[in-house]
UniProtKB/TrEMBL annotation:
Keywords: DNA-binding, Transcription, Transcription regulation. The lineage of its organism: Bacteria, Pseudomonadati, Pseudomonadota, Betaproteobacteria, Neisseriales. This is HTH-type transcriptional regulator RafR. It comes from Amantichitinum ursilacus. It holds the Pfam family Peripla_BP_1. CDD domains: HTH_LacI (cd01392), PBP1_AglR-like (cd20010).
Length: 338
């Protein structure tokens, strides 16, 4: 079946059917749904080469990502990618993942945009001041941010309430009686790390616990960085009785450093990890965590926001903020008796 035959079946013009299938905003929602459903039932498949030549669209959404080896083993990240891919596939679109060196990441964005290789971009690991988002907004190029940032104009984003999640962790530990709580952070230029650090400070303040800057260590976003931060905290004259780790990548190194120091999480020291630990680790069933629920649905939501942006929906309506949740395990216990 070709486009003209589908249009004749629906008693619509070929132009209207084409615009409905391509997501043009001037076609009303009822007509678009009727066209899409008929195309599905009758097995219509568009000539993608002709469509791209006619519309200038690639039917692809991109993610540019500065991969570390640990990213490929992160189940949360993989679930998000699966959700994005699944939802875009339902709209007959593909996800293109481009690896970029961190120091040349913005140059990669510029090449992708100038070459018209994708119809839109999903921007991951947003920064407090993010030149990638600033560039895309200046160019008027469609994007959705996975995380918030400081931009002058409204923009589409999806995020979890990082500050709230970290307050949950600190509240849990202070309720158990901990006063010396260490924080292992990703670089504070990353928006999620800055928000979670604020949640840590607010949580201590709410519990009447004095803030000690020595108990807050930030660095990179690798297991090596997590291990180094943990060794620094353990070397303090009064080491923390509990740790909160603001990401599950560094947490791998934190657990390793604790073991090397002969400390058993949940017995000698408490620990809560934002994002939990990979299911392949033996600790995964017991490590207490602040979880970002429904990772696959979060990916689908990112894709839905991207599709809505491409369809011309107003930007202020394209924001989603979800609440993380505390999942107690066996590593958040009262401080050991001295």
């Amino acid at each position: 079946m070709n486009l003209r035959q589908l249009a004749a079946h629906l008693q619509l013009s070929p132009t209207t059917v084409s615009r409905a299938l391509n997501g043009f905003p001037e076609v009303n929602a009822e007509t678009r749904e009727r066209v899409v459903e008929a195309a599905r039932q009758l097995g219509y498949r568009a000539n993608t080469v002709a469509r791209r030549l006619a519309t200038g669209k690639t039917d692809s959404i991109g993610i540019i990502y500065p991969f570390e080896p640990s990213d490929l083993g992160d189940p949360v990240f993989l679930d998000i990618i699966a959700g994005i891919t699944e939802r875009l596939g339902e709209a007959s679109m593909d996800l293109m993942i481009v690896s970029a060196a961190q120091e040349h990441e913005l140059d990669t964005y510029k090449r992708m945009v100038s070459a018209g290789r994708v119809d839109g971009l999903i921007v991951a690991r947003t920064q407090v001041q993010d030149p990638r988002l600033e560039y895309l907004q200046e160019k008027g190029f469609p994007f959705v941010a996975h995380g918030r940032s400081a931009l002058a104009d409204p923009y589409p984003w999806f995020d979890y309430d990082n500050e709230y999640g970290m307050r949950l962790a600190v509240e849990r530990l202070t309720t158990l009686g901990h006063q010396r709580i260490g924080l292992v952070s990703a670089p504070l230029s990353m928006n999620f790390a800055a928000q979670r650090r604020m949640g840590y400070l607010l949580g201590l303040n709410a519990a009447g616990v004095a803030v000690d800057p020595d108990y807050m260590v930030h660095g990179g976003l690798t297991p090596v960085d997590g291990a180094a931060a943990t060794r620094k905290l353990l070397a303090l004259p009064q080491r923390p009785t509990a740790l909160v780790v603001d990401n599950n990548v560094s947490a791998l190194g934190v657990i390793s450093a604790l073991r090397q120091a002969g400390l058993l999480p949940g017995h000698d020291i408490s620990i809560i990890v934002f994002g939990g630990l990979p299911a392949l680790l033996p600790d995964s069933a017991t490590v207490s965590a602040i979880m970002q629920p429904q990772a696959r649905q979060a990916g689908r939501t990112l894709a839905e926001l991207m599709l809505a942006r491409l369809a011309g929906e107003p930007t202020p309506s394209l924001n989603r903020l979800w609440k993380p949740e505390l999942v107690p395990g066996g590593t958040d216990l009262p401080p050991p008796r001295t």
